[in-house]
Specification:
heterotrimer; A mainly alpha (about 110); B mainly alpha (about 120); C mainly alpha (about 500); A: about 110 residues; mainly alpha; 5 helices; flat; B: mainly alpha; Helix Hairpins; elongated
Chain lengths: ~110, ~120, ~500
């Protein structure tokens, strides 16, 4: 089962949930593929860039990257997580708050 | 015996933490709003505590006081001015949130936060 | 003409309050709102540069009459340089920002008054209050004053969303206020920590205290304050994790209101971003945090945009995604990158406002926002379609328009700062932005018209077309003469670096 088939399957699943007919157009598949490639490229480039900050942060990003790549296709999960659900929004807000404060506190000692 | 100011800082931190946990875990919309007011109350308490001075007097310059004695003994007035404005802002945000919740309750018949899930 | 600095904030507030009182008196509301909306962009052009002190007086060092009566242990210390007032600073950078904000506010108010038979005084009040609040955020040199107007802007924006009468707007406004109820107190807590460390809430005094060694470089309270203020900045601007709620806000607002609200987000990002750089420039982690959040905003915003089937959400996510370019410019921290980041902010506001107004015409004609149900609209309004494709090209970065100039300069500054990876990310995301826009444009205008699509034959309000044309003309002028904007940011950057 190739990546393309996996994406078609997931897009069909999402389309089934959102509308009556599970019609998958070329436009929606190429949109999802583009988004997937964009996210993967951006993550790889950020991992490369972060080596200038600190090697340990780069290793952390690398681990997060591996975790994300194992959950291919990433962009379908992102689409599911970034809905208008208040619960999801507040979860990511509090998570980001914790990560930000920790990162800045760590940045005092190590950079 | 913990100093008053330190205890006050801990209380402010506890209020903020309780508020954040409440916003996340509590289902009822009104209780979420109460949790949000806990957060702003915690921050206001933190601000007020910054102006604390052990044995300090109220910062009103009365006739008969020498200016240098007043400057040394008065508690710091700036945080109190900030907190007054902050309380008003908190109250107005609260009012708008509660008004929206009333309308949503009339529409959906429920105060559960599931009405905010799409 | 220094009192004109205060007038930039006071006039829209006063006008808003009057409009609120005059609700239901249609003709008076129209005349008053339009008059003040025309005056708003003119004031920054005639005001003179300088500082305005609200309810206080200039620093003692500039005030020899007061200094005469003070003891030597005050006049001989650094306290003479501190600002005992709420200070508003007006320089060339604020001039261009407030001018552009005034133009967008004028178009939004003009369009809202023209679209309806009975204008709402309350709705105009909300738009004026929010404009005043963002103007104050741009001008203020006082952290707490910034927080106050930040909250006023939040409540006003929530009110604008509530007034749109679109399905789901109440829930979206409530979500926005809930998230603001977490983020804004964190901003205030950051301000409180800075107050505790420095003893003053004036930003210039804080910068002075830092640069003259009055606080330790690695002070952990200072760093926690940095984190908290950055968190508040993320909320105000719409960077992750607040990108979903911001794009939701844009989708639930009327098109002219959405164009105004996105201007608020961009200018809040620029203003708060400059303040964060002024305070925390010498902490490398802070600039890295700005860059990482900006990249996340770009990647998540643009990749979510391309997957949307509702064009209001699509343009909302695109608007959020484009914010990242500004953040990268600020985060890189070189003279060129900060200049270009602020230039990108100006360009961003203009072209996104144009796109929101343009997509609004589709909603006006068909009442549908799902791109799968639309198609073949090119034959009904080819002129508007032409304006839309131009706006889309501008947003993607096609020469000779303004966004091309700013994106090219951003890429150059990223490479010269030693971050070629950032340059590649920016180019990649520009390509995806273009693809996203073309997807929407094809689905709405070029694709064969689906059966059963009802297109209203009414004329699109000329105010909308007029606004779009003026915005596109400004984009072209800034594209051909970018130095008109970039030369304005020198004063801010000299103070920073």
């Amino acid at each position: 089962m190739t990546l393309y088939d996996a994406i078609i399957g997931k897009v069909r699943e999402i389309e089934k949930k959102t509308r009556m007919e599970a019609r998958v157009t070329n436009i929606s598949v190429s949109a999802v593929l583009t988004a997937e490639l964009t996210i993967v490229s951006t993550i790889l480039l950020v991992i490369l860039m972060v080596r200038k900050l600190d090697v340990y942060i780069m290793v952390l990003f690398l681990l997060v990257g591996f975790m994300l790549f194992s959950m291919t296709p990433i962009v379908v999960i992102l689409h599911r997580e970034q809905t208008d659900s208040f619960h999801k929004m507040i979860f990511y807000v509090i998570l980001t708050f914790g990560v930000l404060i920790t990162l800045l506190y760590w940045g005092n000692i190590n950079v | 015996m913990i100093p008053v100011q330190l205890a006050s800082f801990f209380t402010a931190a506890a209020l903020i933490l309780i508020g954040i946990i409440g916003v996340f875990f509590i289902d009822n919309l009104i209780k979420k709003v109460i949790a949000l007011s806990f957060i702003s109350d915690g921050v206001n308490l933190f601000l007020v505590t910054l102006g604390y001075k052990p044995g300090g007097i109220v910062y009103i310059y009365m006739p008969g006081m020498s200016s240098s004695w007043f400057a040394q003994n008065a508690s710091y007035p700036l945080p109190f001015a900030l907190v007054l404005t902050s309380i008003v802002i908190g109250a107005s945000t609260l009012a708008v949130m509660l008004a929206i919740i009333i309308i949503l309750y009339h529409r959906h018949g429920s105060l559960s936060s599931k009405i905010l899930e799409d | 003409m220094k009192s004109l600095i205060a007038l930039m904030v006071i006039l829209p507030i006063l006008c808003g309050l009057l409009l609120n009182l005059l609700h239901k008196k249609d003709k008076t509301i129209k005349i008053l709102a339009l008059t003040v909306a025309i005056i708003l962009p003119i004031i920054p052009l005639i005001a003179s540069y300088g500082a305005y002190y609200f309810g206080g007086y200039p620093p003692i060092a500039e005030n020899p009459t007061i200094a005469k009566y003070l003891p030597a242990y005050i006049t001989g210390s650094y306290l003479v340089k501190f600002h005992p007032a709420i200070t508003y600073i007006f320089t060339s950078a604020q001039r261009i920002f407030i001018f552009i904000l005034g133009i967008i506010a004028f178009f939004a108010i003009f369009t809202s008054l023209n679209e309806v038979k009975k204008p709402s005084g309350v709705y105009s009040f909300l738009m004026f209050m929010a404009t005043a609040a963002v103007t104050a955020i741009l001008l203020t040199d006082d952290m707490f004053n910034l927080y106050v107007f930040f909250e006023i802007a939040t409540i006003s924006q929530a009110g604008i969303i509530l007034s749109s009468n679109i399905k789901g707007s109440y829930k979206m406004a409530l979500r926005y206020l809930f998230l603001g109820g977490v983020a804004a107190p964190m901003l205030l807590l950051g301000v409180a920590l800075l107050l505790g460390v420095i003893g003053n809430v004036n930003i210039s005094d804080m910068v002075f205290a830092m640069r003259n060694g009055l606080i330790g470089q690695g002070n952990p309270i200072f760093l926690t304050a940095a984190g908290l203020i950055i968190f508040g900045w993320l909320y105000g601007s719409g960077l992750p994790p607040f990108h979903t709620i911001k794009s939701g806000l844009y989708s639930k607002a009327l098109p002219h209101a959405a164009s105004l609200i996105q201007a608020f987000s961009v200018f809040t990002l620029a203003a708060l971003g400059i303040i964060i750089l002024r305070l925390f420039y010498y902490i490398p982690v802070v600039r890295w945090a700005i860059i990482i959040f900006s990249i996340a905003g770009m990647a998540l915003g643009i990749s979510m945009a391309i997957m949307q089937t509702d064009f209001k959400r699509l343009i909302g996510f695109l608007a959020v995604g484009e914010l990242g370019y500004i953040g990268i410019g600020l985060g890189l921290g070189t003279t060129m990158s900060i200049t270009v980041g602020l230039f990108q902010a100006v360009n961003e506001v203009l072209v996104t406002a144009c796109l929101f107004l343009g997509f609004g015409t589709i909603l006006y004609q068909t009442g549908i926002s799902e791109i799968d149900k639309l198609g073949g609209l090119l034959r009904y309004r080819p002129g508007v379609a032409g304006l839309m494709i131009l706006a889309g090209f501008i947003m993607a970065g096609i020469p000779p328009f303004n966004v091309f100039q700013s994106k090219l300069m951003l890429i150059e500054s990223a490479i010269s700062a030693g971050f070629p990876e950032l340059a590649i990310i920016m180019i990649l995301l520009s390509i995806v932005t273009f693809m996203t826009f073309m997807k929407a444009y094809y689905s709405i205008y070029l694709k064969p018209e689906p059966r059963g699509l009802e297109v209203k034959a009414e004329r699109i309000p000329s105010s909308t077309i007029f606004s779009m044309i003026i915005l596109l003309v400004i984009c072209t002028i800034l594209g051909i003469l970018p130095q008109l904007a970039t030369s304005q940011f020198g004063s801010i950057i000299h103070g920073l670096l």
